[in-house]
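Most newcomers find our protein records easier to grasp once they have seen one. A learned vocabulary of local backbone shapes supplies the integers on the structure line. An example says more than a description, so a record of this kind follows:
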Amino acid sequence: MANSNYAWTDNPTVSGVSQCDTDVLNDCLMHLKYNHRTSGGGFSLFDTKITDHVLSGDEALGWVIQGGVVTMTYPDAVNVIKEEYSNGVEYTEGEITYRLSPSGRRITDISQYTNVDKLFETKGYAPYYVYDEVNQQFYLPKNKMFTQLTADTTKVNSTVEAGLPNITGRFDRSNRNGYGPAEGAFFHGDSVGGFCRDGSRDSSYVEFDASRSSSIYGNSDTVQPAAVLQLLYYKVGEVVINSDLALIDAQEMIEDAFQEVDTKINDGLNSLANASDALRQTQVTNCILEAPNNIKIDINENGYLVLKSGSTLIIPAGLDNEGNKKFEHKTLESDVVFTNTDAITGNLKDFMPIVWYSNDASTAHSIGGVCVSQMFAGETAPTNAQDMYWYDTTNNLIKFSNDTGASWEFAMASFPICQVDVIFESASVKYFNYPKAIFSHCGFIGSAYWLDKEVKYLAPNGKSETGTLNNIEGITQDVQIHIITDEESNNIASKCMAWVSSNSISWWGNASVKPYYTKPSVTGYTRYFDTNENYWKKADLSTTFTNTNLCPFATFNINTQNQILSMQPYEIMQVAIGNNSVFWPDYTAGITVSAFPYTAEYDGWLTASVIGDQGTGQNGYLQINGNTVVHSYGLDYTTSQWVIPVSRGDVITAHQVGSVTIFPCKGGR
């Protein structure tokens, strides 16, 4: 377990608030749009643009208006100013002391901010970057003067004093019987009755009008060259805080990493895989990164459930010599087909299949299962039903009774592999529906739930000084089991959330988990995810919230006897940004598909419209065949929406699904 906050030299980081829906990667994605400097085909820092409107959305990526503050949201830019300031030569002009950098930038210390601001108010131009070392940020130059282009590099950032054309003209004194000449800006005005020097009359005013010398005079109250007023922006990076929403452009990052892999290695990233891993662990939080894909299921042409070759089963195998629970992981070398439907006389809801092994757990020799209401777990044998499976937690064995608990049989049996309905149409027509939940890395039996070994997760652990996300990266070393007790549940039916932390698992009733991202009012036991601080916070009958280092991995429902009735594992980040990058969808470009199998044309997200209702017990099922792995999804008709990552080239097959809509991710076409 280590605090994971990986550094990446050219990596812009993000401070901001994620409002990702918990069904979409569990609030794990932060917004990051990455590109590095011109040497890698990206942008040049401090490019400028003049525009006639305020930039917003994607158009504003990396642009900051003149005079604005640039923080460590753009570390490339801050680090450049820091480096150039330290290498600059000191000069003083008027009241401002600055350093002239090797690239020609004038950079002052934050102590000069008032003088720079005063210069701007007085002269209309302050060509200084103001560097704030303590807060690791700087302010951009600002200008409201006319900007004149030049090809003379020695005159860059110099100012030209205001000037006007000269005004000339002349006039002569009045003569007898008339008046003398007037030229240039002078002219004869109205006649006036008056005596000239020689005693005659008929003279005129001599008037002055500068516009007679040049038409530019009189067009403004101040000295004003011809101009159009527009906004000046500086390019400082490729990161934008887009309201509160944030996502990952992983494809761009991976492509850039390919271009500069040698540089990344020199920076301590030994391979592209490490670079991708570092990215996810720095900018992603509160999610399962990787988990075993143990269970592979299909329905054959006869309607039987098929557990495919290569599936790995978890078998509670008693206790070791020190009294600790021992588990066997067995991988099937051939398909196992569940055909035992002969005794079924009606629809069978929420059937939980298991596989029985020989006593030495070497060979799968039979199959079985009962409905979820007939599954139990704990230290005391149940007596609730005729046919029952009981996970004996004292001896760590799964046992079976067909006589209301009077006697128990046991051999090496697996944990349930899925939750599925069996459909009865007639005595000769019975078939399995597609599973509503598949237990590939976590699942349940009775009042016990489990999380497999080698599940890699990121528990939120606050933020660094620069605003990047800190995480505690964990990986389960062995199978984790938790049994829900009366003391924990108070025998209250509840929707619950399962958590992993420090190689152990726990749960909270969902009634206490608030869907807020800011501090809620405390009522009883309260938990919420504070995305501003990047912590799960809890308050137990207290007005004070404390930070926790937990990561959710599933939701489930329990009844008043503590039996778990259903479970939905959280999606694994590995599926979303594994071999293909999949990030925030473009909701305006959804593609609806109703003919299967269908080969995905884009990276993106898939939602499914499930056909079925509680009366028929029909559930939807999707299987997504990727390049290297197959992912199966049981779609419970009681669930209102499914959001599943899909990569270009994946082959999608479906059952009891009317249609799917794929929303391409931006950049995924």
About this structure: The mean pLDDT is 73. The longest helix spans residues 75-86. The CA atoms of residues 436 and 634 lie 4 Å apart. The chain has five domains: 44-159+230-237, 169-212, 302-440, 456-569, 579-669.
